[in-house]
Amino acid sequence: MSAEGRAESAGRLLTGVATAIAFLLVLAPILIVIVTAFSPTEYFVFPPPGLSTRWFEEFFRLENMRGAFLLSLEVALVSASLAATLGTLAALALARRHGWMAAVLQGLFLAPLVFPTIILGLALLLFYKSVGMPTLPGLLLAHAVIGAPYCFRSVYGGLQSLDPALEEAGASLGAGPIRTFFLVTLPLIWPTMLAGWLFAFIVSFGELNTAIFLTGPGTTTLPIEIFSYLQFQGSQLVIAAASTLQVGMIILLVAGIERVVGIGRIVRSR
Q1: Is the pTM of this model over 0.85?
Q2: Of 119, 116, 92, 122, which Cα lies nearest the Cα of 193?
Q3: Under CATH, which number does the domain 62-269 receive?
Q4: Would you kindly state where each structural domain of the chain is located, as residue ranges?
């Protein structure tokens, strides 16, 4: 084998090892949590001596856990939809614009990706107190702000790859801007909107740092309840069951989207 072939084989081997390590570091802790959630014992033991659903039953028996799970689901659905709407409108406004102002606005829309969410939560708390914002609408708006950059970037990429001649053809046939959007643009970019919505939902469903500042009595999301329960109340295995339900919810959502449109198509459209 030539030196070039050996170098290429070594590169493939190194890439494979690095990929395996990355998957191990990401998936192994999740698999441990999922397996221990089915443990029949009172305390954490891995591997568990058997399988049982007692901790899932305990999770749904606890009213605070059950209510927090439903609230997190509702907040994630509403805030992801709001984020997808805002992100799409922002992408439509900037996709065909150039110059320093467009660059500044893009940076502004993407700022929540790099801005520490704990600082964002504190800033929003102070702002909400000054304007008298109710807890639940404020929480929805905060989650939408965090999820909007994912939607904006996804739709923006889809619009960048869209041939402007298609929209111009619609306009030349007498369609106005709104009709052109619904008949030409939307059918071509909706996979990117769905991708952004999916990321916004996942981020909202597991958001902790911002929610710490914005939740209150009667308005507690599941990450906050898990954090509180783990610190002050009791069994880690109930937390494992709650975490497994979160993972299962996301897997079902991704599987449903794969069934409807195909994840591969979403990724390619981005």
Answers
A1: no
A2: 92
A3: 1.10.3720.10
A4: 62-269
